[in-house]
Structure formats: C-alpha cells, structure tokens
Description:
alpha/beta
Amino acid sequence: MSRSHRGEQIVLASNNAGKLREIGQLLAGAQIRIRPQGDFGVPEAEETGLTFVENAIIKARNASAHSGLAAIADDSGIEVDALRGAPGIYSARYAGAGASDEENLRKLLSDLAEAPEAERTGRFQCVLVYLRHPEDPTPLICQGTWEGRILTTPRGTNGFGYDPIFFVPTHGCSSAELDPETKNSLSHRGQALRQLQRLLES
Ligand SMILES: O=P(O)(O)OP(=O)(O)OP(=O)(O)OC[C@H]1O[C@@H](n2cnc3c(O)ncnc32)[C@H](O)[C@@H]1O
Ligand SMILES: [Mg+2]
C-alpha cells in the first residue's frame, strides 16, 4: 500500500512543548498535517522500551489507537561519553519521574563535575516513528544524531531540555544560543524529520 497520504491528518504522539514547536516549524509549508495528541485526549504511554526505537513505537501506537489516526512519535535524548551513554533513553526522567528540564540538566552537570574535559563529548539522538495504524507491521523509522560537548554552565535561553548545556562545536555556542531555524537545520530532530518527510511524500 502506498505511504502517500497528502492532506491526511496525523497525530503527533508527544506532550513535550519544545518538540511540538520544533516539529511544527519543520513541517511549516509541508503537505503533512499534524495535530498534537493533547487535542485528542490521548493518555500518556508508559515508555517501557530499552531503545529509542521501541519507545517511539510504543508512543506512536498509543496515540494512533486512541485517535484513530496515523501517528508520528519522537523518542529522543542525550548521550554522554563520560557516563557511558547515560542518560540516553532515560533523559526525560534522569533526575526522577516527573523531573523538570532544569532538574535533569542540573543532575547531568553534577554527575559530570569530576569528568575529564576529553570525556565531555556527547550527542543528541532522535528516533521518529510513523505508524499508519496501531497494528502497522512496517513502521517507518528515521533517526538523527547531533554531536557536541557538555558545557560546565548553562548558556542561552532558546530551545528546551538540555539545550543550554549542549555545546555545538561547528557554531561555537550552545544549542540554546542558536536561533530556531539554525537549530532545526542541524539538530537530530531536523535530520530525522527531513528523512521522514521524504519517505512520506515519495
Ligand atoms: O515523550 P514525549 O511526550 O514526546 O516527551 P518527553 O519530553 O518525555 O520526550 P522523551 O521521552 O523523548 O525524552 C526526551 C528527553 O531528551 C531531551 N531532549 C530531546 N531533544 C532535545 C533537544 O532538541 N534539545 C534539548 N533536549 C532534548 C528532552 O528534554 C527530554 O528530557
Ligand atoms: Mg517521554
């Protein structure tokens, strides 16, 4: 069956305002029409997977089942080499269930207090999954990775989450100091979404 669905409405399986804003900006002018799962009263899915891929599938399946629409989910996080890849898939709950962005970021800085500079390398990961329906056996899966370093103090006010402590070597600033268009052109999410758009519009 064709993947083409111009004009068809798709539910976006996220409650994260930062992600919703970026994905909305990235899809401005695109054929794809998305609506956040909050519009359909979709309950939060439990992210029980051990990989970004599994968690993205869980969230997309949940949103599709509750809305009756095709769904896109974003599972993302930050990996730090000094912490052997942590917080990774646990990035949203690094400082505990329901932790704020600020609390997660502070815990990461404190866990890295003794880390040698050479090991403060890390990356953002983003997996996007598209499901046509809850039992779709062939989900579209796209991934983006954005390499950087972890700063010792936060800088900048744009973006969300760990952006104020993610240093972007190619631009010499944190990702919270980039304007939204520049972040989207470089980011893990921008990369993954452009891939997904190509697949959906082909
Ligand atoms: O599951 P949903 O409802 O989409 O929202 P969430 O915030 O729980 O999202 P995740 O489970 O995918 O966790 C992503 C974590 O990684 C962080 N993160 C992801 N992308 C980011 C970005 O572009 N900039 C900064 N932090 C980011 C984000 O702040 C979260 O702590
Ligand atoms: Mg989540």
